[in-house]
Amino acid sequence: MQKDVIIIGGGAAGFFAAINIAEQRPDLKVAILERGKEGLTKVKISGGGRCNVTHAEFLPLELTKYYPRGEKELLGPFHKFMTGDTIAWFEERGVPLKIEDDGRMFPQSNSSQTIIDCFLNEAKTHGVEVLYNHAVKTVTKEDANFHIQTTQGDFTSKHLMVATGSNPKIWQLLETFGHTIAKPVPSLFTFNITDERIKDIPGVVVKDVAVTVKDTNLYSEGPLLITHWGLSAPSILKLSAFGAIALAARDYKFQIEVNFIKTTLADCLASLKDLKQEQAKKAIFTSIAFGLPKRLWHKLVLASGLDTDTKWADVNKAQLERLAKQLTQAVFNVEGKSTFKEEFVTAGGVHLKEINFKTFESKYVQQLYFAGEVLNIDAVTGGFNFQNAWTSAFIAAKAIANLA
Questions:
Q1: Beta-carbon neighbour count of residue 215 at 10 Å?
Q2: Which residues make beta-bridge pairs with 224?
Q3: pLDDT in tens, 146-180
Q4: Are 255 and 218 in contact (CB under 8 A)?
Q5: What end-to-end distance do the CA atoms of the chain give, in Å?
Q6: DSSP assignment of 235-292, as one string?
Q7: Residue 85 to residue 64: CA distance in whole angstroms
Q8: Residues 281/256, Cβ–Cβ less than 8 Å
Q9: What ranges in 160-206 are assigned the alpha helix state H?
């Protein structure tokens, strides 16, 4: 079957690219090949079913800092298609977005189905053919045409875009074209920790902490969530993203240091000495300080070797120092990871040096384009991975539409 443009992958990047190509060039026959019985599954579950479309960061240079892999390469593309362009694109198609307190952006409907319906309706309006259950078996190029063999039939196309996300089989096919693949490792994951200080207090949140991976330069700040299996929330997820390769090399066994109050040991000690004077007759256990959650304060006090009835007046210098260290230099042993299976993000993919980032075209194969996480680009949580999908898909679509 002959097409002008074939896009492998019926996810966010694939649909976004197909719609933009067909909109700019109604004369082109555009088809999406999706291996599953339905597409846009990641869109459906993103953000707890609300779809975290993008993030309210409107400066290209600042936006790139959320990408452990791709920071340098995405600066130029973000000057062409950015967060504001994403917002405008969806609003022009009847899907207004809203900004939440943490900067994440969702459809006002609070439903990912709104995004899915938008894509499906736009694809239908512009004549994009969406073919489900079409798993790609082989891809070759001959006489300036790509030949794609699928489980449901064969296709020929002048232009080919790969938007499959982290798909090992597709990566293997791309290697036959001379591309090299950065070994995939998990990028967003939580830390598995067994420790008395966080035992039996799942659900406790500390609004702003500093976390360091010992013996590395890995550092992050932000909210911290204590879970049944360890630690999570943005401060941990950032570390997992920026440290994806280093932590995989350690087989996810390493130590972290948590500063629960984001102040120095010396300043913390000075504050504790003030409390010793001001609340001399009170029990330390019940004197919650530094705005910490009560249950966590109790755990850290006990971990310092203090009893539940120890009064401030009775503590000595060594005991105050132990408490200060628990508050500012608490060391935890990480014994593994837990990944978000639904919103799994991988570090790895086509090496970025092999891509022309003005068009997202392969430097090795003419008319072969890429969009989304099939490339070795990934981001922290918060809508940034989708923004990469929109940007890369839009720029590649424009390049195809101009050349076809």
A1: 9
A2: 206
A3: 999 999 999 999 999 999 999 999 999 999 999 99
A4: no
A5: 18
A6: HHHHHHHHTHHHHHHTTT-EEEEEESS-S-HHHHHHHHHHHHHHTTTSBGGG---TT-
A7: 16
A8: no
A9: 168-175
Q: Could you give the CA distance from residue 198 to residue 283 in angstroms, rounded to a whole number? A: 21
Alpha-carbon gap, residue 179 to 45, rounded angstroms: 31
Sign of the CA dihedral with 386 first, then 56, 378, and 400 last: positive
Please give the single-letter amino acid code of residue 179: H
Joined together, the tokens standing for residue 275 give: 């409390």
* Cβ within 8 Å of residue 267, ≥6 positions away: none
Bridge partners (DSSP) listed for residue 167: none
Please name the residues in contact with 337: beta carbons below 8 A apart, sequence gap of 6 or more: 186, 189, 190, 191, 192, 240, 247, 252
Tokens read off for 256: 């972290």
Q: What are the residues facing 213 on neighbouring strands?
A: 256
399-400-404 Cα angle (round to 5):
125
Tallying the residues shown for the chain, one arrives at 404
H helix runs in 52-203, sequence order: 60-64, 75-80, 83-92, 112-125, 168-175
231 closest CA partner among 334, 143, 144, 141: 334
Q: Which of 67-71, 186-190, 221-225 has the lowest mean pLDDT?
A: 186-190
pLDDT digits (tens, 9 = 90+) for 37-51: 999 999 999 989 999
Which residue in this structure is represented by tokens 């597409």?
A: 39
Please check whether residue 398 is in contact with residue 369, taking contact to mean a CB–CB distance below 8 angstroms: no
pTM over 0.85: yes
